[in-house]
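1st attempt posting a full record on here, be nice pls
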Amino acid sequence: MNAEDLKLVVKEKYSEIATQSKSQNETSCCGSTCGCSDSTYTVFSDDYSKLEGYNPDADLGLGCGIPTQFAGIKKGNHVLDLGSGAGNDCFVARAIVGETGKVTGLDFTDAMLAKANENVKKLGYINVNFVQGDIEEMPLPEKAFDVVVSNCVLNLVPNKNKAFAQIMRVLKTNGHFCVSDVVLKGKLPEKLRDDAIMYAGCVSGSIDIDEYLAIINAQGFKNVTIHKQKAIDIPNDILEKYLSKEEINTFKNGETGIFSITVSAYKQS
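the predicted structure (as tokens):
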């Protein structure tokens, strides 16, 4: 598939996800309804429930970390959340920036935006807003944000160079980003990489960790720091849909791995 076809697949899948409950999302392929695992498949999602600002209606169980924990957000900051979904990370960030700060969520799925706007209306927040747009071409002004966060979304963006270039553009001087994402070590088997459901399920849209960090550095970011890294184990009953037993053994016993990472970096003058 080309980049536009991949975007269409992601948009369609996440429109479907927006109508599901958190429990439905967590027991499927990172939000798909394929019912692809007999075991409880919650390897991506972290527990937000004890965080200030947490709103259960906004938590669809789609993250692979908690970027706000390491983002160094301060009271009064203007924070941008990329791929904001139903608003989960936005509402947590809003609790940190307080009444004097502002939070903007960017998403390109109508159903997610509708859900997020419904949530913010119920909460009555006037300093949280949601904007429709493509991460590769953000409809946002330059040098507008102190902090950019994102949770298990940038791996789904076909052109990650464009995504990080846009992050650089919208950040204020000395601003920074902190994102949680899924990366690879070694080469993911082609049958997994090429499957559209696994792509929209946060796995095969991922790239090698060294390539991921090289893109960040190439865009001019400084002080790149990996705060957290967690190995992701895909259950055998999922792998069996794509690989032979011999291929599964090779995959699990080789150097190939899938990880969630939380990484930050700074824009300097």
